[in-house]
Amino acid sequence: MTTSIVLAIIVTSIATYSSRFLGVLSSEKIKETSKIFVWFNCLAYSTLAALIARVVIFPYGILSETDHLLRLIVLFFSILIFYLTKRNLVYPTVFSAIILFFLSSYF
Amino acid sequence: MINLKYFFQGFSCIKRFDSPAIALFCCMIAIGALFKNIGLNIQESFFSTFLTYALPGSLVMAESLIIGAPLLNIFIAVWLVNARLYPMTVSLMPLLMHESQPKWKYYLSCHFVAVSAWLIMKSNYQNVDKKNRIDYWMGVGTATWSIAIIGTIIGFITSDFLNKDVMIGLAIVNPVYFMCMMIGAMQTIQITLSIILGAILGPAFYYLSPEWSILFGGFFAGTIAYFVGTKNDN
Q: Residue A58 in contact with residue A37, Cβ under 8 Å?
């Protein structure tokens, strides 16, 4: 193994685990009925939504090679399918992969 | 030690037709293929997912390796993108804590805090009595973690057969799936506002600071949603 890659993996895992570890440490003092718990619950959902929206609009990696508009169109129709299929998660997911595959092949 | 009945109940959550396993598996295939393309070997790819198990963090690490960023920069970039795991852990663990359970279970199983396992647990915890929730959670986490590792390895092995367009198709699965799952979770004013504001403010803050956009956007969105929700309840 190349040293730098191994070190990068270790550094990445420490950076990731530290947030989880601190989360458990803080949880020991937080009751599920407290206001701070409700606040953290809001923060968790909002940061997740912020991350997902960021991945769609300003993506990392290979998704950044696709057009902005294409990604937003695919997302819009996927959400529409989600509602039309009575909140089924599989149909919009499969649809998004297939449609973006074809769109990115042709555009 | 671990109550296997509840562990396997949690573990079996991935067998459901609409479980996050499919989305997780697809995007981990893309990660495995990416790892191979940037020069990781199969052991490194395995250990990366084994030890990190957080998709955006792995992507940031891969991008940093491509540009040859120093270790400190990798640490900061990954920390910033994965700091969301802190509020996610704090909003989950108090629901699982029980005085009869040993603490090591919590510190070990927090490694499984990632979007897929977290969302499964958030929508199922009320069906399990509090004493056994941690064992159920360990089952959920082990299942999704295993899927992620297997996906990475399969992606690594099959990367020669995956062209760019297939990789793009696989990469969109994750945000679409989780966006739909989040919409499904919008059942109270607080959560609905948190999600809508987060989705707006996260990208908006990108113009101010790409690195801090998720944290700043999430912080302001969550805090506004909390106060609006509390005021509405009163």
A: no
